[in-house]
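TA notes, week 10

Several of you asked for a full example with nothing omitted. So below is the full record: structure tokens for the whole chain, then the designed sequence directly under it. When grading your own attempts, check the secondary structure regions first.
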């Protein structure tokens, strides 16, 4: 069969022949129709994500949409290595397959699944969002952050604060307050302190780096009670490491945690994605995307997908 294959560390994927997947007990063959190029897919392909494997060659792609042998339309997550989502066919543990609702088409499902799962799992499995909670989304102008604002509202958030570098995008998200990043540190710090002096129950952090340092500093200086402030670290596109002030852990009710592969089980991640699909229409969960045939993987792979997504389709679609 044809697939997008990484042949060695540091190499970009190429469109070439790969062995046919053969299912064993507990697995299912899926004929793939669409797979989205997410940050997770990029990171695992490059070997930079913490969940990346060391087996070469392998087929790239962590999730996608396809058909079962009986024609049922499904979404699938994390095929068995070395098989991936960007191929004509793949093999997936049966428990990591979700039947798609009729009102969500293949491309839309492929686009919103991983991006939406990030905040859905963080809010429901890690932060345990409650009706009326105030949620601050740090990095709301990327694909995952954009969906996080809508998902937080759908799950009952009473107030949403959005941060990001693109002010125009921030103003279009429907958040109750915004904090533009990229300006001088003192202005950003002052804005964060003002929000934490009021009420913030949950922080969803897609950035880490400098903005996270500012957020934690503001928490240390303004939050002085034992009310649980759930800070969920999801992404680190602004930096992988920061210094955490000891005072923020001693003087507040801060609960600092992560959300992702490992901190949330495959079963619960799959359930989170099912929730995203059920909410897709009522919550208006959608992102811009561009469709490319899988044959064009070498040229389409480098495209910047920070706001939207690149979706690869196969002949089966």
């Amino acid at each position: 069969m044809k697939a997008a294959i990484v042949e060695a560390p540091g190499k970009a994927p190429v469109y070439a022949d790969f062995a046919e997947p053969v299912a064993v007990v507990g697995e299912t063959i899926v004929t793939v129709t669409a797979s989205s190029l997410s940050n997770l897919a990029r990171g695992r392909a490059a070997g930079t994500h913490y969940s990346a494997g060391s087996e070469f060659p392998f087929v790239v792609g962590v999730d996608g949409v396809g058909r079962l042998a009986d024609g049922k339309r499904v979404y699938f997550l994390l095929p068995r290595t070395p098989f991936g989502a960007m191929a004509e066919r793949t093999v997936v543990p049966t428990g990591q397959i979700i039947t798609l609702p009729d009102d969500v088409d293949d491309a839309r499902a492929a686009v919103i699944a991983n991006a939406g799962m990030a905040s859905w799992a963080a809010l429901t499995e890690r932060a345990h969002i409650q009706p009326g909670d105030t949620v601050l989304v740090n990095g709301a102008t990327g694909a995952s952050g954009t969906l996080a604002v809508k998902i937080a509202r759908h799950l009952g958030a009473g107030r949403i604060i959005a941060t990001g570098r693109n002010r125009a995008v921030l103003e279009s998200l429907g958040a109750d307050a915004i904090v533009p990043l990229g300006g001088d540190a003192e202005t950003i710090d002052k804005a964060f302190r003002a929000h934490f002096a009021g009420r913030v129950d949950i922080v969803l952090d897609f950035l880490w780096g400098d903005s996270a340092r500012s957020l934690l500093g503001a928490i240390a200086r303004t939050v002085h009670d034992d009310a649980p402030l759930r800070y969920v670290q999801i992404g680190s596109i602004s930096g992988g490491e920061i210094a955490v002030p000891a005072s923020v852990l001693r003087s507040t009710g801060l609960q600092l945690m992560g959300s992702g592969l490992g901190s949330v089980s495959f079963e619960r991640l799959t359930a989170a994605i099912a929730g995203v699909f059920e909410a897709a229409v009522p919550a208006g969960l959608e992102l811009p995307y561009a469709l490319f045939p899988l044959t064009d993987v070498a040229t389409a792979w480098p495209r910047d997908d920070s706001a939207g997504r690149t979706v690869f389709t196969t002949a089966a679609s």
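The radius of gyration is 20 Å. Use that as a sanity check on your answer.
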